[in-house]
Specification:
The complex is a heterodimer.
Chain A: H1 2-9, H2 14-29, H3 35-51, H4 55-76, E1 81-91, H5 98-112, H6 115-125, H7 129-134, H8 137-147, E2 148-152, E3 159-165, H9 168-188, E4 193-199, H10 212-240
Antiparallel strand pairs in A: 1-3, 1-4, 2-3
Chain B: H1 4-12, E1 17-18, H2 19-30, H3 36-48, E2 52-54, E3 63-66, H4 68-94
Antiparallel strand pairs in B: 1-3, 2-3
Helix pairs in contact in B: 1-2
The chains are: A alpha+beta, B mainly alpha.
């Protein structure tokens, strides 16, 4: 118990220990150690750390605050649902290589994701109603583009089309429209190959895995760096004072 | 009355004392056992406020003394407590 008490006493800030450490130890030596005294000492150390936080305390405090802030932000965000479809490309005049497939799909994708095409989708399906009241349409469309993925599917040589949105049926409806347009464009301008639907757009029953832990880790790290910088600045200033 | 700062100032009002002596004195006159964390939290706060000062000492047990500001503060607090006691007693008589 005595050893634990000495350990807890070391939780006081260094500057405090330099000033009061000797006399504090002298008082402790005259006391019979008990859990009550251990808790009282721990509480005193914590209070002192919070009153004049040093580098370690500031780093810890900022890290915890950062993680909590990030958790709050993560919780306040609506869940996202991903609808996904898979297309297969058959290319004329040779095997399907990643480069040939990209050359074939590139112009199709550019037309399907053009500003006009996306603006039509937004209006038709009434996407992002709140965001459109706050931001110019260009910004909304840029954000929408980031939620769309048209690229190699993890399984084999197929192409995946996916869209993330807070409502399941709208996520699916967007992928349905994107697939329709890709196929229609392929028929209109056949180019070097043919697209074929392998897996139809899914109806997402479950939201995407939350990014809570990832965001909390980022908040923790960001807060710790900020706290360390604040602690360093404070220590530097107190030394030069 | 369990405010550690007030107990500590009251203890020093009848002479200089080091930490352990204050704990013993407070336990005797107020029946309050202050822990070392609470005691030294109050000591560092009062010293910062200029209400007590540390005295030189040959050993590790550094004594403290009440300053003039500390006496004035204690007097003011005692006056308030006295007023509170009077009101409380008067109301209890009519209760």
């Amino acid at each position: 118990m005595r050893r634990l008490l000495n350990l807890v006493a070391r939780l006081y800030p260094r500057a405090w220990r330099q000033r009061y450490g000797d006399e504090f130890s002298a008082v402790m030596e005259q006391l019979e150690p008990s859990w009550k005294i251990v808790f009282d000492t721990a509480q005193g150390a914590l209070t002192m750390q919070l009153r004049k936080p040093g580098l370690v305390a500031l780093t810890l405090m900022f890290a915890i605050a950062g993680a909590l802030l990030a958790a709050g932000v993560a919780w306040s965000r609506p869940s996202q649902y991903r609808s996904r479809a898979v297309l297969a490309a058959t290319l004329r005049g040779g095997p399907v290589t990643a480069q040939r497939e990209a050359e074939f799909l590139g112009p199709l994708v550019a037309r399907v994701l053009s500003r006009r095409a996306l603006a039509e989708l937004v209006t038709e399906l009434d996407l992002y109603p709140e965001l459109r009241k706050q931001q110019p349409l260009e910004d909304v469309l840029e954000g929408m583009k980031r939620s769309i993925r048209i690229g190699p599917a993890p399984e084999g040589t197929a192409t995946e089309v996916s869209f993330d949105y807070p409502q399941q049926y709208r996520a699916q409806a967007v992928v349905v429209r994107l697939i329709d347009r890709l196929l229609a464009e392929n028929v209109r301008v056949p180019g070097a190959g043919t697209l074929e639907l392998v897996d139809p757009p899914t109806y997402p029953h479950h939201s995407l895995p939350g990014k809570l832990s990832q965001m909390m880790a980022q908040g923790l790290l960001g807060g710790a760096l900020l706290g360390a910088a604040a602690g360093w600045w404070r220590t530097r200033n107190s030394r030069s004072a | 009355m369990t405010d550690p700062s007030l107990l500590l100032l009251t203890s020093l009002a009848d002479g200089d004392k080091h930490g352990y002596a204050m704990m013993e004195d407070i336990a005797a006159f107020a029946q309050v056992k202050l822990g070392p964390g609470t005691l030294y939290g109050a000591i560092s706060r009062l010293e910062e406020q200029g209400l007590i000062v540390p005295l030189d000492s040959d050993d590790r047990r550094r004594p403290y003394r009440l300053t003039a500001a500390g006496q004035a503060h204690l007097r003011e607090q005692m006056g308030r407590l006295h007023g509170l006691v009077k009101v409380g007693q008067a109301r209890l008589r009519h209760a």
